[in-house]
Amino acid sequence: MDGYPQAAKGLGKMFLAEILMMVGVLTILLGIGVIFSLVGQVVYLMGLYQARQDNPLYGSAFSLTIVGLVVRFLTGLLGWSLLGSLLDLLASILSFGVLYLICSATGMLLASLGQGGLARLGHTVWTVNLACTLVGMALSLLVIFPVINLLMIPGVVLIALAELVGGVLFLIFLYKASKALA
Q1: If you compute the radius of gyration of the chain from its CA atoms, what whole number of angstroms results?
Q2: Distance (Å, rounded) from C-alpha 68 to C-alpha 172?
Q3: CA distance 112 to 43
């Protein structure tokens, strides 16, 4: 097989979308950040939809992303309530599920083309993100305890740094995989 052109194009769109969403976060105070984020989300969905032609796991990731968007919307409506917190936890799990499906699908396609090293990078990406998700959930439970919750501060800083590393690794993975699958 020559490659997986639809997955390659879809991953390229997802790479661009991640950049747009990062710009959106960085420019949120300027008012244009929301536009960048929304455009990024649409491009991300387009990428997943296109990539699903080469592997059905991308279609599953697409569906989970839609569910995640609905859950995030409901979380925003409910604010800081017990149900809002539970939905926020569910949204985090869904986000990890999407990332896992993307990395797994891409890893399978890469492995079929003899790109085992790059496929292992995808495994590293989802492993780092799994660790961040689990530790983040554990830290969020510390909020319940008045004094112990102070221990949460260094943990949150470490998780933020680990998530930054995981995000950069995901960007590198998307970019390299989009080129390797073309």
Answers
A1: 17
A2: 24
A3: 27
Report the amino acid identity of residue 41.
Answer: Q
Among candidate residues 130, 138, 137, the one with its CA nearest the CA of residue 170: 130
This prediction has a pTM of 0.90
Instruction: Let me know: does 117 contact 168? Beta carbons within 8 Å.
Output: no
Q: Give the torsion through C-alpha atoms of 6, 45, 90, 104, to 10 deg.
A: 10
Provide the token pair at 104.
């797994």
Write out the two tokens for 87: 């939905």
Task: Quick: pLDDT tens for 102-136.
Answer: 999 999 999 999 999 999 999 999 999 999 888 88
Six token digits for residue 148: 């112990």
User: Given the structure tokens 């983040």, which residue do they identify?
Assistant: 136
